[in-house]
Amino acid sequence: MNDYPVSYKIKKIINETHNIKTIYLNASLNVKPGQFLMVWLPGVDEKPFVPTITGKETAITIKKRGFFTKKLFALKKGDLLGLRGPYGHGFEFEKVKNACIVAAGIGIAAVVRLAEELALKKAKIDFVYGCKSKKEILFQKRLKKNFKNAYCNR
Ligand SMILES: Cc1cc2nc3c(=O)[nH]c(=O)nc-3n(C[C@H](O)[C@H](O)[C@H](O)COP(=O)(O)OP(=O)(O)OC[C@H]3O[C@@H](n4cnc5c(N)ncnc54)[C@H](O)[C@@H]3O)c2cc1C
User: Which pLDDT does position 147 carry in this prediction?
Assistant: First the structure.
């Protein structure tokens, strides 16, 4: 755990939708589903984000909202970003056999890893995910891997 920000290089940026990006960092961190990181942009601000990928690399998925996220959107591959944490206890899901996970819009960032971990443990999952429009649905390929019966109803 880093209780002070450590800078990591951005290795890749994926445009998920017109206003959502995933930034991949060269950061090897162990963050439990449900925990969050403080993301620090020197001279701008520091705000909480839930990593959508952790392990050998770390990714954060950001929706452009206000001042801070506009600055994050301007970052390029090779730029540095500070991370502090992880914080929070994370979800207690080890013994869960049945789950109903509900998310909307960028809120899926907070539960996508939980859903994947539960799927690995062969838990029975009902995953309800809503977005303003079909083109804003995040992580379609990722979700289809574990949720073969997924369908989209507009
Ligand atoms: C534990 C935690 C985890 C988070 N994880 C993520 C994440 O993975 N991805 C992510 O994009 N954001 C996440 N957030 C929100 C993030 O920390 C910022 O607050 C958000 O990105 C907006 O910052 P900003 O400075 O750009 O906008 P601000 O200038 O703070 O806000 C601009 C406007 O948007 C509104 N607003 C801010 N956030 C939201 C929201 N999420 N939904 C609806 N309206 C909002 C504000 O009320 C304000 O009117 C998380 C927040 C918490 C507390």
Answer: 77
